[in-house]
Amino acid sequence: MGMCLSGFAFLILAATGFWGNPSSYWAMFQMVAGLGFVIFVHEMGHFLVAKACGVKCEKFYIGFDFFDIKIGNRVIIPRSLLKYQWGETEYGIGIIPLGGYVKMLGQDDDPRKYEEEMARSRKTDGTETKVVAGTETEKAAHPHHESVTDVDMEPTPLPGDGDESFELDPRSYQAKNVPQRMAIISAGVIMNVIFAVIFATIAYSLGVSHVPTEIGRLAPGGAAYAAGVPVGGRIVQLAKGSSKNEHLRFRHDLSQAVMMAGVKRDLEVLVKTRDGKEEWYAVRPQDTTMETAAGPQKVPTIGVGPADTTEISPVTTLAKQFAAAQVENGFQAGDVVTAVAAPEGEKVVIGDMASGGPYVLDGFLSQHANVPITFTIERTPQTEDGAPVKNAAAQTVTVTVPAQHMQRLGLVMKAGPIESVRRGSTGDKGGLKPGDELLQVDGAPLGDPLTLPDRLQGKYGQPVEVVVQRKDDKGATHEETLQVEVHPPEFINTMWSTGSPFVVQELGVTFPMLREVTAVMPDSPAAVAGLQAGDLVDWVSFKVEGDVDADMKNLIPVDRTIDLTGKAHNWMEVQSWLQFAVPQNKIQLAFSRGKEKQQTVTLKTYPAPEQFNPDRGLHFMTLQEIHKAPLGEAIGFGFRETKENLVRVATFLQRLATGEISPMNLGGPGMIAMAATSEAKQGTANFLLFLTFLSANLAIVNFLPIPVLDGGHMMFLTYEAIFRRPVSEKWFVALSLAGLAFVLSLMLFVVSLDIFRFAQMFS
Fold it and tell me: Which of 9, 27, 139, 654 sits 20 to 30 Å CA-CA off 689?
């Protein structure tokens, strides 16, 4: 009954992990079995209620068996991969894995077969007519017959030839009254909702692994940074009307809440700080171009990143261009940092998450970027293939990592006006405002803006004089001198994205780095190439020449061109990629000088003497938690999870219809399969939560008032119940054809999106 469409689960593309290449056969098996089971549950609902109402069910299919795949007259792939006749019903698996259906006597979702099915629903035995024929001609021919439909909301009148006496087959769908047909129609959706609760209950009983909404870092100039959201705080409530939840998930609850908010309304978040205080923040998501395996994607973000642990990530050992990977007998994946020390300084103990260890480590690295640091680490012995040795005692090891100079081309770029001032920061308290242009800091000209954090290092807690150029209400400019206290950095800034501004955490401000050259460092690659102050950089490209280690290919800029002539990109994107460049990178830069012809030069990076990279190439594992509950609580969580998913899907569709969310954020069958496989690889509990989300999707989408879907059938039955007559054949066929065309068009659209994304990924 009704096509159950699995191809329209609306998933969000903010996470690039959805586009990983599935490597686990078990995860893929879970994906196929899980998606098939969700469809099976939906169709089983229709089937069981139809049987209970006495309707003959002719077919029960997972997947659609619309046609054979042929070459000429030869069938290459039959329409049914598997089928079996049991009693009066044919059970099977169709070749089109986009849903399923139950075929009942007298019912077909293909409107072109309307009259054929109506004819099959009647029986002719010469007895007195019990139901007046459904066409207008036949009704006129029987003016004194009172249709049962007119008095008891009984079956839909059927077409006949006007002369033949007939009655409905009592086992046909059309022979059932309106309440019975409504029950059959709604059973699939109800079963999806019931099993969504069951899936979620089992998941929370097993224990759900998730990335919590603890804020580990902020994007420069992002909504959260400007709003003053604290690093180390945990988001425990999304919107004031929702319930408080200490176990919100970063890549599900938060990401989807941001998507739902869009860029036209504030998202209210309740943040609980590490000392237990709670405060509401209103953040307005911003459209941000994110680099994904499927290519650049523009999505709304608030500019927050998940928290890290103090456990070394494998990336640390692979990124050979950084100091952390160049140390002999250095770090191994799985090492845990327990203490750090600078030359002639006391050892600082790095505690666990409960004591804020990662934030202590971040602060120490930021404040000692220009000196070597000795790390004390706890190491579990490993085999040659990297597996931990069973029952082996942990070892204490020390590793000293030298300071890491920032890689530059030798260009000093112009700083634009201040874009944002962090609420509650020392800059905010000192009077800095968006639109101000920095002229002097601490008695010296601004100079190279990128070295400002390094120049302020060691002056934490001290006021410095900041001279800005400011426009008044009439547009006239004037200089103002302010006193601003220097604040220690809260986090190591690694969240660069397309168009990111530069952040000076010490003053709590961000500003864009423009494409105008204000100075060229003596003897630098840029100076040797002939660049001068006043030049305008048009674009910078990164290519690879020569062999690169396979493990490094995803860690360096490859075939990337950054166009600086528009508004989408700025110099910080170039500066970020320069840090990942290797000797095999060929860096080309095109610049304009006055009315001269554009020139292109080839450059190499060099270490800037006065600017340092605080993280030194260290990467840490993302914090993950397991939320496990006893059965009683798990049932409550199951109901809550299902309700939240239903509301989330309905809200998404509403904002999609009003244009607040782009249809480019839809995903088709390929997207669903990739998401399901990704979740299955995280464990059974996570996969069950995904099935909860998918079940909510199917329930809402299939109940939309679109003819050929369950909601469309319910719409026709509601009309029949109110007006005590069915929709005319002409309107039924016309609306059904329109609904079918819409569904097929939407299916083609989302499948095309999937194909495009896969093409981008594999290219």
Answer: 654
Smallest CA-to-CA distance from 174 within 191, 202, 210, 149 is with: 149
Look at strands 215-218 and 286-292 and give their pairing: unpaired
User: Helix 684-702 crosses helix 669-681 at what angle (to 10 degrees)?
Assistant: 150
Q: Counting beta carbons within 10 angstroms of the beta carbon of residue 329, is it exposed (0 to 12), middle (13 to 18) or buried (19 or more)?
A: exposed
First-to-last C-alpha distance (Å) of the chain: 41
> CB count, 10 Å around CB of 509?
30
pLDDT band at 411 (very low <50, low <70, confident <90, very high): very high
The mean-pLDDT minimum among 27-41, 45-59, 218-232 falls in 27-41
Is residue 747 helix, strand or coil? helix
DSSP string over 553-581: GGGS--SEEEE-SSSS--HHHHHHHHTT-
Percent of the chain with pLDDT over 70: 88
Query: Is residue 733 predicted with pLDDT exceeding 60?
Result: yes
Task: Indicate whether 205 pLDDT > 60.
Answer: yes
Task: Tell how many helices (H) and how many strands (E) occur in the chain.
Answer: 19, 39
CA dist., res. 150 & res. 226, Å (int): 65
**Measuring CA to CA, how many Å separate 708 from each of 65, 181, 191, 422, 572?**
16, 15, 19, 52, 52
pLDDT in tens, 594-652: 988 999 999 999 999 889 999 999 999 999 999 999 999 999 999 999 998 998 899 88
Question: Mean per-residue pLDDT for 547-571?
Answer: 83
How buried is residue 383: exposed, middle or buried, by Cβ count under 10 Å (0-12/13-18/19+)? exposed
Burial class of residue 239 (count of CB atoms within 10 Å of its CB; 0-12, 13-18, 19+): middle
Domains 308-406 and 410-604 share a fold: yes
pLDDT of residue 392: 80
Distance in angstroms (rounded) separating the CA atoms of residues 374 and 363: 15
595's tokens: 């009315």
Mean pLDDT for 15-26 is: 48
Q: Report residue 384's pLDDT band, with 50, 70 and 90 as the boundaries.
A: confident
Burial (0-12, 13-18, 19+ Cβ within 10 Å), 105: buried
For residues 548, 552, 554, 555, the Cα torsion angle rounded to the nearest 10 degrees is: -120
* Whether the Cβ atoms of residue 49 and residue 183 lie closer than 8 Å to each other: yes
Identity of the amino acid at 178: V
Q: Tell me: the pLDDT tens digits for 434-463? A: 999 999 999 999 999 999 999 998 899 999
| Beta pairing class for 57-64 and 89-94 | parallel
85 - beta bridge partners?
90
* Architecture in CATH of 410-604: Roll (2.30)
CB 758 within 8 A of CB 671: no
pLDDT of residue 150: 39
* Confidence (pLDDT) at 133: 40
Assess contact for 235 and 270: CB atoms under 8 A: yes
Residue range 308-406 forms a domain whose CATH class is mainly beta
Domain boundaries, the chain: 1-109+177-205+630-763, 122-168, 308-406, 410-604
Q: 453 with 442: CB under 8 angstroms?
A: no
pTM recorded for the entire structure: 0.77
CA distances to 100, 419, 664, 710, 744 from 754, in Å: 21, 37, 10, 25, 15
The CA distance from 600 to 538, in Å, is 10
**pLDDT at residue 144, as a whole number:** 34
- 160, 137 Cβ separation under 8 angstroms: no
